[in-house]
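Reference record:
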Amino acid sequence: MAELWLVCEGDPNSIDLTMLKMVFVDVLASGISIESAGGMKGTGAVAGFIRQRRGGTAAYVNDRDYRPREDAEAAFSDGMPGFLWRRHSIENYLLAPSVLLRTIHGIKERSGRQRSAWPAWLSALPNDLAALHGMLRECAHARAAEEACRIANHRLWSSLPESLGVVQKRNPRRQDGDDRSEPSRWREALCQEVERISAAARRTADSPEFSRPNAIHLFDTAFGEITAEPYLNGMEFLIDFHGRDLLKALRHQVAPGADALPDGWLVDAAAAEYKAN
């Protein structure tokens, strides 16, 4: 049978690789081998290399980051080997309230029934889903302004015409003549390249997308969306917010400076919760 490979972001010690191995290899015994791309980029190239050198089928998965949810859905139906998490990143799947609750119960079991044996931060964690939802909403409120800024910035760059926002570096080219040793022609080539870059920069600077009013509009729109009660009450921020930073905010709220909710136990709980998914 042909081998199956899934390439993920992150280094060999990342949560991405650890969690995917736990789910696909240990829990599901799916026959899919998980490989790390060694960083945040290059998943597609690594998958292509595996297909070429090892044979079989190799796909790859990337964080959705701040791209629209529709991009993730399209990635699951376009027939291409690259996919996007439906949530911002793989850490967002560790923040599902059911995963957190399972983690909390697991930590308490490991620590014994005596509350005196629990880590100091463990008592600050709620024992029921409703209270956990409330704690997560508080973390979302605290992060809303920064998340709105990031969302707005992504929308800004994704809305730019192709002619704006990026000035490609390239070597100057001689426009005419055959004498490649003539200094004046190369001097003119450099001047024309400088003029090209300056013109592109002027077009970018003069574009309405890069105006202060547009920046304010983008931020206020994003901030209004992610602080609206339906969004918060529906826990939508667990899908769209930066998962690692939201988890960091939760840990800080429980116990500033302590290693609350260890990654390993979160991954174990997530693998158990998503076993049937």
About this structure: DSSP finds twelve helices and four strands in the chain.
